[in-house]
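FAQ: What does a ligand-bound record look like?

Like this one, built around EPZ:
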Amino acid sequence: MAYYKITGGKRLEGAVTISGAKNAALAIIPAAILCGESCLLENLPAIEDVRIVEQILQSMGAEVEHTPDGSLRLDPSGINSYSVTGEMVSSLRASYYLLGALLGRYKKAEIALPGGCAIGQRPIDQHIKGMRALGADIVIQGGAVKASAEKLVGAEIYLDVVSVGATINIMMAAVGAEGTTIIANAAKEPHVVDVANFLNMMGANVKGAGTDVIRIQGGRKLHGCTYAVIPDQIEAGTFMIAAAATGGDVVINNVIPTHLEAISAKLMESGVSVTEGDDGREFFIRVTADKRPRAVNIKTLPYPGFPTDLQQPMMAFLAAAQGNSFVVENIFEDRFNHVPELAKMGANIHLNARTAMIEGVEKLYGAPLVASDLRAGAALIVAALAAEGTSTIRNIRFIDRGYEFIEHKFKALGADIERIEE
Ligand code: EPZ
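The answer part, i.e. the structure of the complex:
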């Protein structure tokens, strides 16, 4: 098992380039099933979860090939299995996208119930509600979701909960339904828009992605295409927070600044300088911090609110801020598992249901730490980089799931971080 060894107290300085968005890639790869033709997918992040999805599609009969520049040529025409169960599938939350893609194309699917980070119960009732509204018969048996339909017919679907996964999954199935589907109370995250853009590139007719109401004209003939995934909003936010936490000066390249407005606003509120610009080719954001941050309050909300995936790294930053910060986690009911680890470093955080009260301390100190999930792992890296002394972080396989070459990127910014294979 590998672990990180980090000696903190060094200002991060320099430039980092953001990779493709994990949560867009994990939906777009299965979505290519809908067109049944070869697609070239570019700017995919080289992370564990993407590798797992590729392996799952290969196991179903799809052809998967990496081009020299790291793009993925995917030909789903050879898919001959609509049942994907087993460890690989159940370990991955995003495996639920196979439901919408297989149902949309083949009108049948059997998928192991999804796994993913332990941050709450994470039901898929809204996914199922949407598929049933389109005419699918769905049963949950033996730890798997079994879905089938004579045909899918467009429907009006109101999501009881703003759900990224349900919005994307229903969008995919609706592409294979005859007639018009309307998804109301839809999620508006950048990766929802990215998936809709990909579906339209394949010849679908999806309108309104990025707003509360998405309209899909289904039943159209789709074709293969080339598509580049957007930059990862959460990776960019993680590096912005790490730069601020270490009092650094970092240029973050290949970002879409509008996707980062919530995190930029909160960092500026804490006294950090955040500027944006473009070098004629791509946008960048520069984060500069030269004094101890002020405490700020955070409420996680669906986009464009403060993203839940940055709540944990942000708490690591606020642990050493001046004053008391309140963080309310409105999206997941159990997303504070990083707090006991931060406490080992001297953080003073009080939890009460979905609210954390962070009493800022002068500084954090290195300690032996254990990551409990992907973004908790990111939070521990941020804390260890800012802390005085040396920390170790175990269970970094969680971090490998969602961040491409993270130790190399931090090392290039001057961090003293080492990946040690035991
Ligand atoms: C996606 O998870 C992301 N994962 C998560 O990122 C992200 O935190 C989340 O969206 C919110 O932005 C992927 O895209 C693979 P939801 P998802 O459905 O789709 C409840 C990361 O770190 N809900 O928007 O599972 C649910 O319990 C990961 O990259 C239902 O009640 O999130 C949660 O409380 C972590 N019923 C809320 O909605 C449903 O059918 C939002 O969940 C579906 C969801």
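Follow-up question: can I read anything off the structure? Yes, for example: The longest strand covers residues 2-7.
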